[in-house]
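Readers of this paper often ask what the protein records in our data store actually look like. An entry from our holdings is shown next, in its original layout:
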Amino acid sequence: MNESFDALVIGAGPTGLACGIELQRRGVNCVLVEKGCVVNSLYHYPTNMTFFTTPELLEIGNIPMTSLNDKPNRTEALKYYRRVAEHFRLNIRQYERVERIAGEDMAFQVFTVDRRGCPKTYQARKIILATGYYDVPNMLDVPGEDLPKVLHYYKEPHPYYNHDVAVIGAKNSAAIAALELLWTGARVTLIHRGAGISDKVKYWIKPNIENRIKSGEIKGYFHSRVVEIQPDWIRVATPEGEITLKNDWVFALIGYQPDLRFLNSVGITLEAETLKPRTSPDTLESDRRGIYLAGVIVAGMHTNEIFIENGRFHGQAIAESIAAKLLA
């Protein structure tokens, strides 16, 4: 049986939740469809992660967020967003993936598949894409990257105790992973094509990782890149030539990007250089009429321009536009 809504939000991260709240406040009947769990990207963050921001900058729906410390951690954020979703009684369909969008403004059809493999179809007058960018990792494009030992997400260090682990990258996720792996008893090598640890690494993490590399506790290879991965070793191109390193696990933490193929399939036009979708600066409606974009996907490949702290405000502008068109 098909269900009909005024608006359908794809994605139930913080921005998607904010959109749902603002639509609901304006009397717009909406549903949120999420391929994973509520705030799925946050759930997949490292277990012990601490946000580089204060609680009030993560708040949505005017619901206060509390934290035991100046900066909230992942567990506190997950609890907060669950509480917000429950408080507003948002209609969220978890573990349901959107496969296709058909139709046109005021008469869209959204085709999904739930966790049981059952297809569903929704009718929606307006659509909001709030899909984030954490689901498509940047790839190394080297032989052996498809081996099970190669991971693009870091969760926690315990399974890698007493193993040879390579961490590729030099931003926050790579630095945190390398340190936690070291502290848990892994033998860690950090490999990065740049000259050193990124200046964007959190100020209390950067000197720590640099000191561990300087002391030799973590072996660092800069201006270097992995060129081949095999079950028991990796080959690395360094300024001094290629070397082979004993290796059990590889964490390729070199960033993520929006699902551009999905945006193209929906009919969203992307700017050639930045891959930013074309949207109205005031309403965030895309050039496919009736489809709005919210959160980090608005920035295209410049994913460092939009975070929870500013993406959460997209919901208000979008909801005002939709409500004006539907309820006038």
Remarks:
- The chain is about 25% helix and 25% strand.
- The first strand starts at residue 3 and ends at 10.
- The domain at 139-252 is CATH 3.50.50.60 (FAD/NAD(P)-binding domain).
